[in-house]
Fold this protein.
Amino acid sequence: MSITKIAVMGYGVVGSGTVELFYKNKESICKKADRELDIKYILDLRDFPGDPFEDKLTKDFNVILNDDEVQIVAELMGGKTFAYEYTKQLLSKGKSVVTSNKELVAAHGAELLAIAKKNKCNYLFEASVGGGIPIIRPLHQCLVGNKIEKIAGILNGTTNFILTKMIYDQLSFDEALKLAQQLGYAEKDPTADIEGYDACRKICILGSLAFGKHIYPEYVHCSGITRVTLDDVEYADNAGYAIKLIGSVEAEGDKLNAMVCPRLVSKNNMLASVNDVYNAISVTGDGVGEVLFYGRGAGKLATASAVVGDIVDAAKHIGRPIVSLAWEDSSSRDFIIRYKESAVSIYVRITADEVDSYKEEISEMFGYVDFIPRKRRCEKELAFITPKLAEFEIDKRLEQISKKCKIESKIRVL
Ligand code: HSE
């Protein structure tokens, strides 16, 4: 039997994890793939003297591109420049590509899937969302009998770790971020995580797959957790909620409501008890109801687990594109609802001298509001949750309040 040869591009955390896991479980992996598999090349510009796989290292992408023996390539380099060009070239030559690169899938998924289909190979990206959690394959295979109604999830481990430390250990945002960096969860430049961009790319991938049209990150309202304070965490807790960064996409009529933002999540919702670096994704289908996918959303071997799963699937489908893994491209955001038009409840924290004197006015303005109690509440501070209204209507009322009080925080309720 001929051996199916694999190349791994990028020998960083996920790349080295993929090589490690592959060789650790090679026998059972090949048995399940029903063929002999082996890694022929590892592409990286760095040197790794003494590495057990030093003989497989190459710095030249063309060696992989032009080797007809290589049928599957794991792109674990990240980014949108070289990874994009290399992926296009590989797919155009009929080599399947598997990846953890959510930035690339979110930006060019529709195009790359189309190139793969045309060239009778596959572009697989189970590792791009939720690390080791199976979510891509369940969406287009196990749940294919459903019309998907809603997806909402905790899609970023770093921010979930930070929020967990704020909730349980009363660390401030800055202290929790520093700890996340010390523990190696957050990057030196943590912008993509804390501003929500990483979660946004992931919800775009899930939404594109579930609803069949490419949702570009630019179409999606995205805000991160940098403005969440310990005051908000405590008020939320007193009202029966935990604050979580939630990526969501939901069908509303013939349009989609997609968003990434911090949310007050009721403690009765399972997402509220997903802590530390864990991720969880809730999917609601018209047949199955709600299902929850939970696990390690990042990390070397957890992500490698999804990459190796895709390598095996690619090996089983050589010359046969997996047609259920596809969506149309989109050229405008018309199918995405303007988020301010969507109905939502909002938690609001305000400050003013003698702020309690505005309670009646605020209640009348909204019909009713739930004022949130807090132990040792500062007498200049008030927090409440509005009823569910179109967000622009809530904003109009808050504009009135802001003439007398300072609006310190606004966080949507899930
Ligand atoms: N920075 C990401 C996270 C890594 O914290 O979830 C996995 O995509």
Remarks:
- Residues 114 and 326 are 8 Å apart (CA to CA).
- Residues 131, 156-158, 193, 198, 297-298 surround L-homoserine (CB under 6 Å).
- The first helix runs from residue 13 to 24.
